[in-house]
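Exercise 7. Given the encoded structure of a 219-residue chain, write a plausible sequence.
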């Protein structure tokens, strides 16, 4: 990257941090990236830190030590969170969302990228100190929100499926009682998608009775 003025560094550094949440970035990396002294980089980071905190975008933590640096943690201020939740509650309470069989129509919400981005940031703000290793969901309705949460937490997404796919290798399969149909169904998870002992946050569309959620917790 060519040498930038401070204004350019601030813009590019802010964008970089927003795209790499929960990732420790060394001052050396920024110094080499912008061809600037570490003292100048430190001053830039102070400006960004103050802006993040004042606007409620999140926190910029300083990690000490030889392998340290800075880490951006997405957050959401109370006012913004309450406004987002209240809008979702009003929308989800519309009677026309109730489908035959007691299901809830949510595809317009799940298909809204901006809304999923904001909800993902809200979840990440709540989970910022939980040391989540991965986000898990079942195909297909939970995928948009799961990826939004995973992006803001900086962790991978593991997708549980209801059918075996040879392209995913060895699978773990379990039977569970579907809350929506009272039938025994099967779900599978690729063994390579999660490391043993991973701390997982589960996203479920919870369309009716939560049977899928109970099944994923067993996986």
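Solution.
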């Amino acid at each position: 990257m060519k040498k930038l003025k401070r204004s350019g560094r601030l813009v590019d550094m802010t964008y970089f941090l927003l795209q790499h949440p929960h990732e420790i970035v060394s001052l050396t990396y920024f110094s080499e990236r912008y061809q600037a002294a570490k003292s100048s980089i430190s001053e830039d980071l102070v400006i960004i830190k103050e802006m993040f905190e004042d606007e409620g975008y999140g926190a910029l933590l300083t990690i000490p030590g030889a392998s340290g640096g800075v880490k951006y943690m997405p957050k959401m201020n109370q006012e913004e969170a309450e406004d987002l939740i209240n809008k979702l509650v009003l929308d989800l309470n519309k009677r026309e969302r109730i489908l035959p069989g007691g299901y809830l129509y949510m595809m317009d919400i799940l298909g809204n990228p901006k809304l999923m981005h904001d909800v993902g940031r809200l979840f990440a703000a709540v989970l910022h100190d939980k040391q989540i290793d991965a986000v898990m969901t079942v195909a297909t309705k939970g995928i948009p929100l799961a990826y939004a949460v995973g992006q803001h937490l900086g962790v991978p997404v593991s997708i549980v499926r209801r059918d075996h796919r040879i392209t995913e290798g060895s699978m773990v399969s379990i039977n569970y009682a579907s809350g929506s149909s009272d039938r025994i169904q099967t779900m599978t998870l690729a063994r390579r998608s999660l490391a043993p002992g991973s701390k997982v946050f589960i996203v479920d569309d919870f369309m009716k009775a939560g049977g899928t959620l109970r099944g994923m917790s067993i996986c």
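Remark. The helical segments are 6-19, 27-34, 38-55, 78-92, 107-110, 113-127, 143-153, 211-218. Students should compare their own answers with the one above.
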